[in-house]
Request: fold
Amino acid sequence: MPVRPDRRRSLRGQISLPGGEFAMGDAFDEGYPADGETPVHPVRVRPFHMDETAVTNARFATFVKATGYVTEAERYGSSAVFHLVVAASSADILGSAVGAPWWINVRGAHWRRPEGDRSDITDRQHHPVVHVSWNDASAYARWAGKRLPTEAEWEYAARGGLNARRYAWGDELNPDGRWRCNIWQGRFPHTNTAEDGYLTTAPAKSYRPNGFGLWNTAGNVWEWCADWFSPTYYARAPLDDPHGPQTGTARVMRGGSYLCHDSYCNRYRVAARSSNTAESSSGNLGFRCANDASGSMP
Reply:
């Protein structure tokens, strides 16, 4: 559904970042080869602004009310829900994903009903919105006077000023025995002890912000970036403000989600990357927005 672009630039809820040079990529060689997290390479980004949190259900509801926008999951009639939290009748369970049977295609699952028709977001207004596709996220960003971040901007912002570290807070997953992000604990995909406090999404302002003041740049929900994805892009990426390949079949996702676990998806590391097609949606996929430091929207 087209949304009238609002060219008025808005910095609401955003943090000003100074820009600068950093080492982008996996310095620990812990990534999946198919994700293309190496080679580590210098990147220089200009000053920009970034949302301090992922876009919440409350903010997305404001967008929908103002525009009448209908998400792709709503139009397609179904979306992917993690098997332990499905809240739908058996007639609405349409099957599971090949190779990932913990993902159930549920009729009626979308951003307002994240686990199916028997769920709602009444008590999750300040949680990240989920079941949004890249196309949905781009539509929101245009309406809000913002844009999606480039992958380079996302990693620079997520690092919070800590260069060549494993996580947004340092190299240890649980410093002082405390969880710093919302990921899976237990045995994936059947037992989550929820030691971090959450089975699915956490409020967008949970745990501690990073050194730049951004919340939950690891775990909670995957976040869309503007770039097309290529596992070989890092070998040819320019030094200044890389924007990814010119074409592709999937868009970059960053940050990992509440389902990440070192036995299955060790992508809550700050260098980790993944991808999905632009129309895809699921119960662990959201986004945050960025903006230029000055001037009008690109």
Residues 1-5 have pLDDT under 50 and may be disordered. The CA atoms of residues 23 and 42 lie 5 Å apart.
